[in-house]
Please model this.
Amino acid sequence: MGTSKPASSPARDLLVRNWARKLAQKLQSILPCKPNEAELRRTVEPVLDQFCEEAGIPPLSHAEYSYASGIADAVFSRFIFEYKRPGTLSASFDLATRRALDQLQGYLRDKASEEKRKDQRLAGVVFDGGYIIFTRLLAGRFTGSVPVPANEQSLVRLLQWLAGTASGYPLTSEKLSADFSIDQPHIREILAAFCAALDSVLGDKQGIVAKLFEQWKLFFSESIDYSEAFGGRKLDPLKKWVAKAGIEVKSPEDAERFFFALHTYFALLVKLLAWLALSRHIGGRLGGPSFTQLVSADSETLRRRLKEMEGGGVFKAFGISNLLEGDFFSWYLHAWTQDMESGVRGMLELLDRYDPSTLSIVPEETRDLFKKLYHYLLPREIRHNLGEYYTPDWLAQRLLNQLDNEYFAGDPHRKGDALRKKLLTLRFLDPACGSGTFPVLIIARMRELGLALMLNEAELLDAILLNVVGIDLNPLAVLTARVNYVLAIAPLLEQRRGEIALPVYLADSVRTPAEGEGLFGKGVYEFPTAVGKFHVPAVLCAKGRFDTFCDILEDCVKSEVATDSFISRIQTTLKLGPEDGVNGEDKLLSDMYSRLTELHGQGMNGLWARLLKNNFAPLTIGRFHFIVGNPPWVNWESLPDAYRDSVKPVWEHYGLFPHEGFETILGKGKKDISMLMTYVACDMLLRDEGRLGFIVTQTLFKTSGAGQGFRRFRIPQEKARPVPLRVVHVDDMVELNPFEGASNRTAVMVLEKGMRTRYPTPYTVWRKEKGSRFTYDSTLEEVVSATQRAEFTAEPIDADDNTSPWLTGRRKALAALRKVIGQSDYQARAGSFTGGANAVFWVDVMRERPDGLVVVRNITEGAKVKVDEVTKPVEPGLLYPLLRGRDVERWLSRPSASIIMAQDPRKRRGYSLTEMQARFPRTFTYLRHFEGVLRSRAAYRRFFRPGQDPFYTMFAIGEYTLSSWKVVWREMAETMTAAVVDRVSGKPVVPDHKLLIFA
Model:
């Protein structure tokens, strides 16, 4: 039987539904007659053959095909169809059903082995006319579903699987990253075109592109400091990478512009993928615009359709009102060039070859599609400079299981009533959702439960949209999360009861909107933007009012309604009167409306009202049963200056800054913003008796000063008693290093609001099995099988101080340790903190010269900041022995290197330039060689005065004078039986003239 050209996906979608309906009718006509297996095949196979011919896909390739494990009934390319006598299968997954599935899986395994196939789209079904079992062979393991009734809906799925395994590229992150990385010439072309266009229009400071760029920077300044991420030598990897596309980056400012262009490219790819998926996956049912027509459009039509897409109109045609809103990345349409058009056409032609039916066939591969795509797009070193680490799905799944194991791992056939109630009522929030890992996993579980519990799909869709919410302050992350959200609910969209809004918001979960203070600030919320500050009356910011207010505001601006009419509409729609103080707010509303109308006239409409709406989401979305996520791990001192200053009062409100003065700078201030997000989320967004589960740094529980305020586990209230928080469980995953290429000390924490923490608390330590391996892409089951888990408990070291660091171990061991624990005679300190410039200050002594100078070479091996390796003579007066962890054994220490300490221990900063040039000119020359690197250190820029304090100043050095260090070290050396050993003679020495520096 010949085949015709494959049908376009909307047409195929209609074909699938039509033929599924015909097949259902055929089955209804024969099943009452109790047919045997042969009669069932004679009924079904002609329908499948005709469907394949009309759909333009390969027909039956083998009947009765022999594999090592048996004979498969029918093979369609990468799809195996196994018939069973009607009545063989059952919903209870009995022995006969289990055997039938085992048989099919044997055939699939044989097919994969026979063809040496690693294709993700190898699938099959067992079918007896009454039930269907779907299964897939994915990366060497089987995934699938329980038996489902053979109704029209499941038959649609069967035909979708059959078609999807036969044509097109699979929509997976691996395939996308191969086609859309910077290594591809057509991608280099469009990136270069974006960068050139951006440079050409940013000179107009009042233009819309410049304003969009400034607003993008305003949001990103809250999470990324480009001058720090790409200062000094950190810029080198980016320079090398972008040079592939013929782009030149010379400074952090250039890096900032490049990333705006890169984000624009990635955002465009995400939007086009969403259009492609919606058009082909459900377009025939929802009647949205065709993606294929975009591919063949002429220049004028192409730009017009892209403008329609960027305005959200394309997605509104699919019934989604806010997939694109407050978007910074449509600027390219205002700087359109021929080169840009050529690059976009290359993207479209390549995307047109993809088959989005992968969304149905292999949802496991698409649920983190964009996370992996961006992960692969940027080299690891550049991602890490930006602080971008993506949460592995297995780690996210572990946290969800810890939040509510019954909900996320329970058997719906055993606990159906309880799970049905939870499915419809439980609310989930990820306040730092990134690309949407947690929301998408939650939606996948809700769909799984909905199918097993036979919940009405419209009801399930409503429950998802009401109860699964995300927030992030990264505009690109929000766009990506929204598209991932759409793809996760795509099979349910046909059941929508009207236009839907995706509950993923561009907002700050930490710095939530608050009323101003003073005579003119009371009763007013302030919202800063790149085009000025907007002031919103507090009476409009209540839940149930604010979203409506923003919708009216945007609609009136677009319709160019008069100011008086706008205010009248606000008063009427929101039913506001004098008792609400609205009359006194008329000027405030009038000023805001006038400003937005002015922006509309300048072509900047449609953005600011939506940004306003998103920014206030934390005040309007209500409270949640569960808050879950991976908040950013950014130290207090590494936050951008303006953002750090703006949130300092919030830190102080929650008691997270118990230290003051210089001790805050000296290590006790190394607080992570995840601490603050934990308290704000618990206070503002978590219901009483609700649970919060975060992936955090283990140092929150183990460090003395920095984590002290956090370990109070209580939320202060202005006019009431503090609300306690109970530590339910902590997973210590330090040894696993779950984040690719990072040595972060990872922990998983679950808290419960309204209950006091009682010690000891459960504390599980995860360790790798010897010789075992797992990867970023492993499943939770694979990680569990590759690890051991020690069930420990945790309690404060100081029994009289619940904020002291935790001891962890087995309960009996902790009890025994209590009997010997006491105060140490020594005080631990950070050691010599170079601020990331070890490769400058750490040196090997090569030889001593007759003139008294010492020739040194800097140690660059393993340094995070790359610098030149140089060999230079220096004065010996500022060289000190350096004791590193690798140099210390039990009762023995051998300093293996030296450190240059140009630090005045009394003034806590470097010796003056005058003194260095007079007394240590060779050492000054050596340090001057690295001046750029030393000035770019975050700690130097943050805590010292670059114009006044010497550039070689170190952070947190100077607690002891040289003389007091001599005493301390002599006592330690005597205690350790003269443990310091001379490197040449091997004899013990006690340095009575030098400071031994600890690293």
Q: What stands out?
A: The chain has five domains: 9-167, 171-390, 524-615, 636-678+689-818, 838-998.
